[in-house]
Input
Amino acid sequence: MIYLKSRAEIDTMRRASVIVAEVLQALKEVVKPGMTTLELDELAERMTYEKGAKPAFKGYAVAGRVFEHSLCTSVNEEIVHGIPSDRVLEEGDILGMDFGVVYDGFYGDSAVTVGLGRVSAEAERLMRVTETALNEGIEMLREGNRLGDLGNAIQEIAERSGYSVVREFVGHGIGRKLHEEPPVPNYGDAGKGARLRAGMVLAVEPMVNAGKKEISILDDGWTAITRDRSLAAHFEHSIAVTENGPYVLSRL
Output
């Protein structure tokens, strides 16, 4: 069932999403070669509690596996759900940071990919194209359009650039639960899928691989990587569909 949110509920989700955006912005400003991903996780968690919210991912369980951290940190060929650790970030790495909170009963969720120091031209291009695909997908979130319009816009930009779109993981509805209906694929056919209505709130999150689309899951049961070990990028925003167009809740 797709839950349509009231204006008051969207306002609360905006406050949750701003906290997410503020934390991610702070992480972007401090991250540098020599830091560990665990240090970033600890900073994100501390800031979240200071802002009166709770981490959304910590304690999240899937098929008996529990995610024990507040931040997902995915490096280079890691696509999503990377686990913070004592891994030291190096010059030239790219780092995906996926973060969410729950505030006053509602969730916010967003993700960015950043470069550490001087990165390759290919890494820069991959990140730029993936963020562009997200922004173009967001523009499709208008009443009367269909989910396929969004997925098709993202897929076309990625594939036109010589990249591939991950199929196994998609965006999602968001609200009183972190993951609600409907699933939001980053691929598809224009004019197909659920019709968009005002009050829908969706987390749109293209995951784009520099190489082929096939993935593998590491032995930790969480971390998804590109099977061919090519670089991957991930960007995400939480967006409300309104009568006046898309309202990006997680953008400062």
Summary: Residues 7-248 form a domain with the Creatine Amidinohydrolase fold (CATH 3.90.230.10). The first strand starts at residue 54 and ends at 55. The two ends are 30 Å apart (CA to CA). The first helix runs from residue 7 to 30.
